[in-house]
């Protein structure tokens, strides 16, 4: 582990003196000082107190702030502005890097599923996690499901009652539909839920092994609803106050790591959070439209739709909820 990250980890429990840090990290005091300066240059204002070096009381939303106290093995690369975090993560993959979370405050060329644009102004959580999981490429969709569970849990911990629409949209229910808009006009999508977050997964590999996997997650965190497309909302609009983006992203990364380390837990967790199961759906697939009741999800991520005549397994497509499970 590099000295900078080891220092961040050592500061998690409070102030530590320079000599203690040098002994704990197994480096010289000069190396500790240099790492402290590096963190300060990144905006992570390490304080020099009578008890030693102390972390800032409000760590910033930046590489060091996100890594500080993070219980997941990712290095964070932070940018104020970037075209697309997925594009940057792909560049890192091409140069052989892995276990990196690329984060931007703003994206100028954010990409969504199905070649759509993704609106990503300053204030959102725009992140792409680059890993090299030891799985066959055919199993990769389960990592996208893990990301949708992780995103849902992070939003729920921020106090917003989020749920998942197959395959990986994170929505908030109809009770919050006009929040933050103020003109009384409903901005619901097709089933009354509004989109809080979306996921775009890209990968490369041979049939038997993924070489790299980029899971790009976009959460409309502290974003003005007026700039978002119809059918979308933000956490700040639903909550009525801004969310702590650093904490939100840390929870997302921690849950994603936990789940991908225990793949058996992903489908049960997805089922528990799914709005789609039990709903009447219309799925636009590359092979045509499938209509019926969504009855289950199967590994690694296909939706099982009961059309009345048969159960059809849908691997990819755009899903519309016609009638929710509870109506
Ligand atoms: C969708 O619902 O269409 C998926 C949206 C994915 C957006 C995220 S934001 C971070 C990452 N970088 C991108 O360009 N896209 C993904």
Which descriptors would you attach to this protein?
single chain, alpha+beta, 14 strands, 28% helix, binds biotin, 28% strand, 5-stranded antiparallel β-sheet, 7-stranded mixed β-sheet, 327 residues
Question: What would your notes on this structure say?
Answer:
The chain has helices spanning 3-11, 18-25, 29-41, 63-67, 85-94, 141-157, 235-239, 245-261, 266-273; strands spanning 47-49, 52-54, 75-82, 100-107, 125-131, 162-165, 169-172, 194-206, 209-219, 280-285, 288-298, 302-306, 311-314, 318-323. The protein has 327 residues and is an alpha+beta fold. A hairpin with a 2-residue loop joins strand 1 and strand 2. Helix 6 packs antiparallel against helix 8 (245-261) and helix 6 packs across helix 9. The radius of gyration is 21 Å and the shape is elongated. Residues 175-191 have low confidence and may be disordered. Bound molecules: biotin (BTN). Biotin binds at residues 84-86, 107, 110-113, 116, 118, 120, 126-128, 169, 198-200, 216-218. The site of biotin has 21 residues, from helix 5, strand 5, strand 8 and strand 9.
Record the SSE blueprint:
Blueprint: H1 3-11, H2 18-25, H3 29-41, E1 47-49, E2 52-54, H4 63-67, E3 75-82, H5 85-94, E4 100-107, E5 125-131, H6 141-157, E6 162-165, E7 169-172, E8 194-206, E9 209-219, H7 235-239, H8 245-261, H9 266-273, E10 280-285, E11 288-298, E12 302-306, E13 311-314, E14 318-323
Parallel strand pairs: 3-4
Antiparallel strand pairs: 1-2, 4-5, 5-9, 6-7, 7-8, 8-9, 10-11, 10-14, 11-12, 12-13
Helix pairs in contact: 2-3, 6-8, 6-9
Biotin (BTN) binds at residues 84-86, 107, 110-113, 116, 118, 120, 126-128, 169, 198-200, 216-218.
């Amino acid at each position: 582990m590099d000295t900078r990250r080891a220092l961040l980890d050592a500061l998690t429990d409070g102030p530590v003196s320079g000599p203690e840090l040098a002994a704990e990290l197994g480096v010289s005091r000069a190396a500790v000082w240099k790492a402290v300066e590096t963190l300060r240059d990144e905006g992570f204002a390490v304080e020099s107190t009578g008890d030693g070096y102390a972390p800032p009381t409000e760590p910033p939303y930046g590489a060091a702030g996100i890594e500080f106290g993070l219980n997941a093995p990712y290095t964070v690369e932070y940018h104020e502005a970037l075209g697309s975090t997925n594009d940057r993560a792909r560049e890192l993959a091409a140069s052989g890097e892995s276990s990196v979370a690329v984060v931007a405050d703003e994206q100028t060329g954010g990409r969504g599923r199905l070649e759509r644009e993704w609106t990503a102004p300053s204030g959102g959580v725009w992140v792409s996690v680059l890993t090299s999981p030891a799985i066959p490429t055919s199993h990769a969709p389960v990592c996208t499901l893990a990301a949708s569970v992780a995103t849902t849990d992070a939003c729920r911990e921020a106090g917003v009652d989020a749920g998942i629409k197959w395959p990986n949209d994170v929505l908030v229910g109809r009770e919050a539909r006009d929040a933050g808009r103020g003109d009384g006009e409903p901005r619901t999508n097709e089933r009354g839920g509004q989109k809080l977050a979306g996921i775009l997964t890209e990968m490369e590999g041979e049939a038997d092994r993924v070489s790299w996997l980029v899971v790009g997650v976009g959460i409309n965190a502290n974003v003005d609803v007026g700039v978002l497309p119809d059918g979308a909302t933000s956490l700040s609009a639903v909550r009525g106050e801004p969310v702590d983006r650093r904490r939100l992203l840390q929870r997302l990364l921690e849950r994603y790591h936990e789940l991908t380390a225990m793949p058996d837990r992903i489908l049960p967790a997805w089922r528990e959070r799914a709005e789609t199961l039990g709903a009447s759906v219309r799925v636009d697939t590359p092979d045509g439209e499938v209509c019926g009741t969504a009855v289950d999800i199967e590994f690694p991520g296909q939706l099982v739709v009961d059309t009345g005549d048969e159960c059809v397994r849908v691997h990819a497509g755009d899903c519309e909820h016609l009638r929710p499970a509870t109506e």
